[in-house]
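subagent[fold] <- orchestrator: predict structure for attached chain, return tokens only, no commentary.
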Amino acid sequence: MAKQVDSCDHGEVADAGCVRAVLAELVLTFVFVFTAVAATMAAGAPEVAGAALPMPALAGVAIATALAAGVLVTAGFHVSGGHLNPAVTVALLARGHITAFRSVLYIAAQLLASSLACILLRYITGGMATPVHALGSGIGPIQGLVMEIILTFSLLFVVYATILDPRSAVPGFGPLLTGLIVGANTIAGGNFSGASMNPARSFGPALAMGVWTQHWVYWLGPLIGGPLAGLVYETLFMVKRTYEPLLDNSF
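subagent[fold] -> orchestrator:
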């Protein structure tokens, strides 16, 4: 996500590097959403919207989602940055790590990929429902919004700490660690807000099912939490060195 990828601005939209990056987001997001939604369907999502998923089933969904996120971000990191998520794209846009033009193309590709994945899943499974993110029993829209803000904040905080910060102690492992926080957040918030953290992940199932109840929560929450994490990390924790430290303690 911090790695320099092929340039892509409005004057280079036909450039092969730009096309590769956008196609990578299309393919990677398709596979991610397909895997995550299929895992939720296989776990036996409750028929009643907002009903809690048993913890063993929720853990299974979290593991599948974490593995898919970690592996796919790693796979696409050198091509597009491996965003897979409009919240990631907007967070990086807000801090100047990606151009507005590239952001628009990425988000369009992510939404298209999610839609295609869920429509295909409905076809493959003979018309089974693609579970739509919904607030848990007793959870109001504002409570769900706050949950999504916090979960997405933690996701982008990890992205900054392990990928964007040049002082990261785990260079190369950031994408896999990003997958782990996605899995942890899925367990923590799955039965409360659905733990989307990703507007594209919510958009596809909603489109395939034609269910848009409180869908705004799954856009507004991540689009607040992601940029907020970027602001907090870059303001408080990112160190811009102006000199090289003396590692051998010499003077």
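orchestrator: received. Logging for downstream: Helices lie at 16-42, 55-76, 86-94, 100-124, 141-164, 174-189, 199-209, 217-236. The first helix runs from residue 16 to 42.
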